[in-house]
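$ run holo --ligand "zinc ion" --emit tokens
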Amino acid sequence: MMWMKLCLKLKASCQMTKKAKGKSIMKKTRLLVAAAVVIISFGIVLYRLLMRDFAHEKETIYFNGTILTMEDSQPVVGAVLVRDGIIIEAGGKDEIMKRKAAGTVLADLGGKTMMPGFVDPHTHVDISAFLFEMLDLSGFRHKTNKDVWAYLEESVKKYPKGEWIVCKGLDPILTADLKTPHITYLDKIAPDNPVVITAQTLHSYWVNTKAFQASGITTATPDPSKSSFYEKDRDGKLTGFIAEQEAFSPMRQALLKATSTKKLVGRVDSTLADYAKKGNTTVVSAGLTSEDNTILRLYGHLSGGKPAFLNQLLALVGMFPERSPRPRHFIYIRDTMEQQLPSGQNNGDDFCKIIGVKIWYDGSPYTGSMYLREPYVNSELTSRELHIRPGDSGYALLTKNEIVEKIKKYNKLRWQISVHAQGDRANAETMAAFEEAAKTMDITPYRHRIEHCLLMDKNLLPVFKHLNMTPSFHVNHIYYYGKALNDSIIGRERAGLVLPVKSAAGQGLNFTIHADQPMFASEPLSLVSTAVTRRTREGMTLGAGEAITVLQALKALTTMAAWQIGFEDKLGSIKAGKYADFVVLDRNPLETPVEKIMDIRVLKTIVNGNSVNFQQ
Ligand SMILES: [Zn+2]
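-- output --
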């Protein structure tokens, strides 16, 4: 009996427990569902908040100015209608105004000139950012040797102990009486700070003992090559002079480690804003040398068409800057960093992407590494300041076979190839290498390009045409160093033959002109002026027969530059269907006296219909 009662009680209690359990499970399930709903809703709100981009400008009509389109069929228009970053129509003011809707913004140009934004076809965003805000020892700022070192000595006092002091622009050509520094001098003025000074050409460096210590370089450190080394005196002591980038690399790494990430990414953003300030709506990095993948992520975040989730998270925690309108950014990866190459051309977007591979075949005329047929002039400048030995003609960085193999390799992978070639011998051998590769494969679809072309034999230009190739001319060689080239580096005869820009135009080539920032500031209108006048700073003319017209020079920085990077259908002119990338100038360059073109001011830069704020 007792047993039966116990069983009944237990049964009842079990049923009760089951019911209670059921209720509790339901309750828990409800709670879980509620929590999931809250988390998902929160996630959606956070995602939306995070993915919200800067405000894009409304539909706009630009009018009441001189609007230069760079299109031969319709060179000047009265107004332009832009919607969602795209040019909807460019034409007469009256007909465009008829399309005005209720919310359309009317952008009155106030009689100023609007034209397609400039494309800087060859620059170095990474190095420009690295040097941004550094002490400027250049000849643009200091006219005498005394000025340079007085400025450095004064500046050094402001740095806290241990902080790196980095200087840019040391230049024995523009600062005529410059004496380059010895390690003992730099140790004396900055005993407690690592000091690094880079040359204007970026091929030479001067450092002190603290900088060597911070990067682990000693007298026992082997030189990377004959041309890239740590200079030592007769007693085997380091003099502080470092030749070329390979030897400088450990110091660059140490310096980057010592600089906060936040500071570095901020500099990249400021550098891009600075390009826009000069009128550039697109910049092209001609050879990214960074091993760090974060830099590509950062470029995509700053210039890319849309925000990306992870990048926005990084911006939220302050590791990346917030997005705002910035120039488009297209990149050639240095061939030695080919691990950075994506699997194909289908990467990024119309705002930021990797478009090719950069190869170096020779170096610079200002260090003796430009590869010539005949030796450099033996002058006081070449022997004393530029360290060029009498009889030297420079050298190639690759064997003939190596360059042919590289061209074949990247052409097979369908990458556009860009080759650095300055000297006459470098240009001839590079073009011969392309011709050799073209014997076994079609190289015409990729528009391979040659960079700088200082001493480019005119006879090579038909080969460009035949192979559908394109030169990018470093015309600032004339303006800044033309006199030094003429008087002391390559001599009058060769200086008269530099940069055959008009001949390239005569062949119908889509050529471009560039400043190679940070070697020289990316100032498109200064390039236009030099390509048109062929005048040096001192007023000397080099190769007057190769001068081009203002319109040709403007096209070299707009339509032809867009063609060179494969974006001629989307960028480079004001035409329905293209992106709304514009620059507003205070004067019309086509009607400004040639000697005043350099002084034309950039009033506004518009990328994808949005104005870039320079004041950051
Ligand atoms: Zn360059």
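-- notes --
Residues 125-258 form a domain with the Diaminopimelate Epimerase; Chain A, domain 1 fold (CATH 3.10.310.70).
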